[in-house]
Amino acid sequence: MATNPVRVPETVHNEVHTAARLLGCNAAELLERAWQSFRQSPEFLNDFEQAQKAFSVGDLDHVASRLYEQSAHRAKRRADAVKALRQNA
Amino acid sequence: MQFRLTRRALDDLNLAVAGFAARPATDYMDAHDVVRVFVERRRQDPKAQEWTTLPVTTAPAYNLHYGRYRGLTWHDEDNDVVWLLGVGWHESGSRDDAYAVLKARDQAGTLMPGEQDYLDLEMTREDALSFVVQVSQQAPALVASAREAPGEEVRGVIAGRLGVGVLVEVVVIPGDDESLEEIWVGFEMPPLEGACDLPPQPEWIMAVLAAIVPVQVSAQALDFGGSFPRPGGTKPNEIVVCWRSF
Lengths: 89, 246
Fold this sequence. Notes:
The complex is a heterodimer. Chain A is an all-alpha fold. In chain A, 74% of the residues lie in helices and 0% in strands. In chain A, helix 1 (10-23) packs across helix 2. Chain A is flat and about 45 Å long. The relative contact order of chain A is 0.05. Chain B is elongated.
């Protein structure tokens, strides 16, 4: 599948390649598997179904709120990752 | 790559958090010389020759000098952001020296970007609603236009940012009243420049698809990655999705 070209941090790039080697596939196959797995995850399927229903009845606030919730979760996850860089705290 | 000031760094420079926190530093380089210097230098290299070893955080914090101003920056590679973490006045040997103050903040856990700084990278609730409203009107309209011209690609732009091609194939089953509709959608990548804030991928693609895929078609029935049925097939970097319904 064609994807958006993004700059992948070197650490992530190395981790993906290492994981791919361990699993006996190349990095592109591993990412395709990850993307497929994401699309088949119960959370994604539920989110998508809820959004379809909300659009079909014009409940746009529901879709917007869900997008915003995801933003808030992402912000928390990122901040937690920064906190994890603290040693001897 | 984005260049951002933490809320604490904005305070250090007496820049209004309400006015600047949600914006990339490239938008307000003329607001303060330190902001301009931060962007100009880190654009050339997101890291620097000199760094400060922080007392608690294991990330490298790079020094930024401008006159007697001293600042620390951090290249947040996972999120593709260079942060200006804080700025102070250089007073060698003093407890009020910028680096002493910034190190003390690291010990207190207030130097590195926090949850609110990361939330500032995201869409506001109002932006999210504005995006969803545009998608709810423009995406179905594009599909409706494509249905009026089966077999032809209809192109449009959603929310001023998303270049989208839609093609509807209708297969009529002879001797039967039923017909099969196959809908192809190609998302041009990357999104176009524009005023509307977008949620990150894949959320915006999922929102657009949710607005146009009928509720009886589940997400599992979406085929990603086929060859768009136009002369030349799928374009470079295009994301193609197809589904069928009776």
